[in-house]
Amino acid sequence: MIRAVKVPSPGVTPTQTAPTETGLHGRVLDHLGTAICGGELASGAVLNIDDLVDRYAVSRSVVREVLRVLASMGFIETRRRVGVMIRPAHHWNVFDPQVIRWRLASVGRIAQIRSITELRTAVEPHAAWLAAHRVDHDEASDLVGLAAKLWAAGKAGDEERFLSLDIEFHQRVLRASGNEMFVKLQDLVAEVLIGRHHYHLMPHYPHEQALQLHADVAQSIQRHDGETAREAMVQIMEHAFEEMSSIWEQGRPTGPAPESA
């Protein structure tokens, strides 16, 4: 028998709510999205609109807008004589950056990181190869300069600057590929790198080999050497897998980074 599910109370959700939108709409959306991704609201459960209004102390219009967004992401559907039902995970828009943030904030964050790393391994080496054939002189020079800044930030242990530069580096390679579909993946790359940093899944000091490989990608693209650029990017992805492999094998949850003093 289908019955309405009790929505986890805000503030006592077992998973860490993803830091995304603010305001009433954003608070309810983030709480429900993270609860669905974390399994507290399971597939087949039915949400009661009046219960949501009471639980979150918001208007019906806010709840309806939240449900509209969740429906657009494939999380819920409205069934006649049943109500608003949670859909199975295979219906979710897993390429939506907000969905990625919620999955990273849930107990399934390791599986999310692994999925995107596998996607990056399939795409980014070929993006580097394309970039080597399509990039112009100024773009290539900027990429080499960016790799040098990335090296300096990594050696200095400046995690925030390294993260920002690393995101920019990989996004630039995707853009330089000239493939508009690859370019659309740049937000996913940013989310997983931010997530790895936020949940302490990256070393404080990047390995020197990883820094050198980023320089190799940039310099190979500048020389229009597609094969070497591809191979260097493959090694970057393999290195990321190696860093994460022990965590994947253990399957242990990892908490959010502690607040700065």
TrEMBL record:
Any Pfam family hit: FCD
Domain HTH gntR-type: 22-89
Entries under PROSITE patterns matching the protein: HTH_GNTR
Residue span of region Disordered: 1-22
Species whose genome carries this gene: Micromonospora craniellae
SMART domains per the UniProt record, alphabetical: FCD (SM00895), HTH_GNTR (SM00345)
Listed name of the protein: FadR family transcriptional regulator
Any one GO molecular-function label of the UniProt entry: DNA-binding transcription factor activity
